[in-house]
Design a protein that fits this description.
- The chain is of the alpha+beta class.
- The chain has one domain: Class II aldolase/adducin N-terminal domain (L-fuculose-1-phosphate Aldolase).
- Helices cover 36% and strands 20% of the residues.
- It is built from five helices and eight strands.
- Strands 3-2-1-4-8-7-6-5 form an eight-stranded mixed sheet, sandwiched between helices.
- α2 (76-85) packs parallel to α4 (145-158) and α3 packs across α5.
- It starts with a helix and ends in a 5-residue tail after the last helix.
- Bound molecules: 5-S-methyl-1-O-phosphono-5-thio-D-ribulose (MRU) and zinc ion.
- Zinc ion binds at residues 28, 75, 94, 96, 171-172.
Amino acid sequence: MIDFTDAANAIVAAGGRLDRLGLAPATAGNYSMRLDDGTMAITVSGAHKGRLTPGQVMRASLEGASLDGKKPSAETLLHCLVYEVDGGAGAVLHSHSVAGTVLSRALADRSAIELEGYELLKIFPGVVDHDVRIAMPLVDNSQDMPALAAQLRPILQAATPPLPAFYIRGHGLYAWGPTMDAAENLVEACEFLLNCAWEELKLNGGGR
Ligand SMILES: CSC[C@@H](O)[C@@H](O)C(=O)COP(=O)(O)O
Ligand SMILES: [Zn+2]
């Protein structure tokens, strides 16, 4: 658990790291941390995540209400959803990448991105061998966040074992962990895996 000042600093640092990795173009992405007082720190809407300042991190309730008058991320309800369904989630990160975007669009009508046989799958909790198949939930994009959260809730609740990531088609990745370090590692690994899956699909002539 963490207080607001420490969370804001960790979120600013995460923005710099994800931007350097090409996972936060323009104003894309949003980040949050669960605070020890039962609220969350989350990025304001519309900020460039590679140039964040602590003043662009705000406090919101776990239901998504602004607690300091600032305007929270347009996707705040997805962060709320993660904290609701995963009591162990301490940090949530949302990234945008070319590979993930085009792969998810190529997998039209699929409800999951299948990732199989990669060493980096061992980043997921409980995975100890590369010889495994992970199905990352994939849902269509929407600007209706209450509807998107309602669609995702049963999907995340049904995942066995729980999987701390999902993908919104043509949009981006959500991944989370107990700490910001864990969430950053998950985002980095998931984006690497999506990149591999996209390159393999291209090699195999796949797509729409
Ligand atoms: C125009 S950048 C993409 C945004 O529309 C959105 O998908 C996003 O990730 C950032 O929204 P934000 O409201 O700044 O948290
Ligand atoms: Zn986004």
